[in-house]
Every structure is written in structure tokens, then in C-alpha cells.
Amino acid sequence: MGKVMILLNDAKEFDSIESLTLFVKSIIDSLPYEIVCAAYLDNENNLMALVRLNGGTATNVDANAEDLIGYAHAILCKRVVIYHNHPSGSAVPSESDIVATRRLYKLTFVNGIKLLDHIVVSKNGYHSVLSDLPDIAL
After folding, report:
1. Which of 8, 28, 66, 113 could form a cystine bridge with 108, CB 3.0-4.6 A?
2. Which residues of the chain are under the pLDDT cut of 70?
3. Hey, what domains does the chain have and what are their CATH numbers?
């Protein structure tokens, strides 16, 4: 599956990460396979671009850190929220979700990008992975 980058002519305004999450959730929560996408934000948390980084299977997907960082640098973006869906209906992060979040947090940090959150969405809700990691400051 190819990557899709949606650049917005004017940043789409969201008043919170929660309202952004509801927007992204409406796009990906019902897919029958997992995908990872990134919401690139300006300094006021306005959405600059939404990028589908990778697609996977019904139970697995890998985030591509190189693409995540490359797109951020290409559009001069310093803030990002990662989203991925769980077709099972459960928004509870898996152990691999937690490991991936820690890895992506470190990689984005050293590349000058602030990972604001990694949010798992499903038909039944959503969950912040970073909120489960007390050693990583939000």
C-alpha cells in the first residue's frame, strides 16, 4: 500500500488534541486492518498535514520512523501526534505499542521533533499511550 500525504493549504484548526483525535478517529477507526498515521501540527496545534505512514494486517502494523521524521522536516514541522487503529475494537495499547512509542519518542526527540502523543483508536474509543508512560513527560 502506498503512502498518502495530505497537505493542507490552510492549517485546519483544532482547539485540543482531543478534538484532533476525534477527527482522525472518524477516518481510521473502522478500517479492517491496522494503519499508522501522523498528524503534523504547527505551534498552535493546528493540523498542517495528516500522513498515512504504514498499513499492516488485522493485528499488526509498524511505524516507519524514517518517514515520520522525514515528513516533519520536509514541511518544517516540530510537533506530531501518532495515531493507529485497532480493528479488534479495543483501544488498549499492546506491549509492542508501548515499546514502539518509547522508541519513536526518543527518535523524534533527537531529531528536534516533539512527539505530543501516540493514540490508539478503535470503534469503541481511544487511548493515549504516553499517558501510560510516567517516565516520559507530556
Report:
1. 113
2. 1-11, 55-63, 137-138
3. 4-75+84-112 (3.40.140.10)
CA separation for the pair 15, 22 (Å, rounded): 12
pLDDT of residue 59: 44
Q: How far is CA 125 from CA 23, 50, 89, 119, in A?
A: 12, 20, 8, 10
With beta carbons less than 8 A apart as the criterion, state whether 72 and 66 touch. Answer: no
Nearest 10 degrees: Cα torsion 17, 87, 96, 16: 0
**Cell, residue 137:** 513527560
pLDDT at 72: 94
In the chain, the amino acid numbered 53 is L
- CA–CA gap between residue 136 and residue 93 (Å, rounded): 16
Cβ atoms 126, 92 nearer than 8 A: no
Q: What pLDDT does residue 63 have?
A: 67
Residue 80, helix vs strand vs coil: strand
**Alpha helix ranges (H) inside 6-138:** 17-28, 65-74, 95-110
Q: Are 103 and 57 in contact (CB under 8 A)?
A: no
